[in-house]
Amino acid sequence: MAGWVLVYAAFAAGLVGAWLVVRRDRYAEVTGEPEFAGSALERDIHADDRGTRLAGVRAFAEFADRVPSLRQDFVDQLFVQLDSGWPENRAWQAELWPVLLPRLRRGSPCFWPGMDLHPKSMVLHDVELRGCEIRNAIFHDMHFSGDVHFDGAVCTGLVSFKGSRFTRHAYFGGARFETGADFGHTTFTGTAAFAGASTEGETWFDEARFSARADFGGARFADTSFAGAGFAGRTSFRDARFAEAFFGEARFSGHADFTGATAERVRFPRARARTDVHAVRHWPPGWQLGPSRPRKPGHWADLTRA
């Protein structure tokens, strides 16, 4: 009898072992994750050879096309690769953006919905995300080198560029931020183009610095704050529409055009404009410049109710 017990026990153990193998393989088939972890593909994307690594990144993207659970992992890994520190990093990044771009564009055969972009602080060169649709876009304290294109982009979740620096032109024309956006403490060295952009939630440009042209013509924004913002170049809010616009302590050093701009409420408490420079300005109805007085640097006048 004891012998038969041992036989049955061995048979049962074999069945359990076989079931575990089948379960493991089935899990790999469904999730793809065990198949990827420790694979040659994973080793390729960490290779020391640049060509091998680029091939690995492309293969990872194609693998994630088939395994949706890996798509966010790929996006996160792509931003790690963008900051990999290769010599000629600008050229390296230029090779990576085309891998991501079609997967973030609705209408593309390989579109991935609901992706989040939340890289750590780094230098990004020549960012190309025009026409993309993503969920959350969190770019805190980033240094954007070269032109940045978010033209026509759609963000359905959180959007924040807080503390970032754009050292060339930043294009957000026609972009749609469905839950608002935060550009607080952001520096725009080149053109800041938001013409035709729209937001459906609160938007902040508090303490932002616009060193060159700032174009918000035709923008459609919900409640928006430009508290403490500095506009050094030609600034246009022509035909823009706001739910509420707040310009407390904002400073205008160059041309300013609010022709056709509308808002349920617009406020300029302690906002001022420089008066010792040649500048053509069209303020919203009911607002005008008060007396000019010295205030470093130059002469300034406060905006007051007409």
Set down the secondary structure blueprint:
Layout: H1 2-31, H2 33-36, H3 40-44, H4 50-66, H5 71-82, H6 89-100, E1 123-125, E2 133-134, E3 137-138, E4 143-145, E5 148-149, E6 154-155, E7 159-160, E8 165-166, E9 170-171, E10 176-177, E11 181-182, E12 187-188, E13 192-193, E14 198-199, E15 203-204, E16 209-210, E17 214-215, E18 220-221, E19 224-225, E20 230-231, E21 235-236, E22 241-246, E23 251-252, E24 256-257, E25 262-267, E26 272-274, E27 281-282, E28 287-294, E29 299-305
Helix pairs in contact: 4-6, 5-6
Task: Describe the protein's architecture and organization.
- It is a single chain.
- By secondary structure, this protein is α/β, with parallel strands linked by helices.
- It has a domain at 116-306.
- 26% of the residues lie in helices and 26% in strands.
- The chain has a ten-stranded mixed β-sheet.
- A hairpin with a 4-residue loop joins strand 28 (287-294) and strand 29.
- Helix 5 packs antiparallel against helix 6 (89-100).
- The radius of gyration is 27 Å and the shape is elongated.
- The N and C termini lie far apart (106 Å).
List keywords for this structure.
6 helices; 7-stranded parallel sheet; 10-stranded mixed sheet; alpha/beta; 306 residues; single chain
Structural class: alpha/beta
- What percent of residues are in strands? 25-35%
| Count of runs of 4 or more consecutive helical residues | 6
Radius of gyration: 27 Å
Largest sheet: 10 strands, mixed
Shape field: elongated
Q: Number of DSSP strands?
A: 29
Give the strand order of the largest sheet, numbering strands 1, 2, ... along the chain.
Answer: 1-4-8-12-16-20-23-26-29-28
Q: Tell me roughly what share of residues is in helical segments.
A: 25-40%
Please report the distance between the alpha carbons of the first and last residues. 106 Å
Mean pLDDT: 89
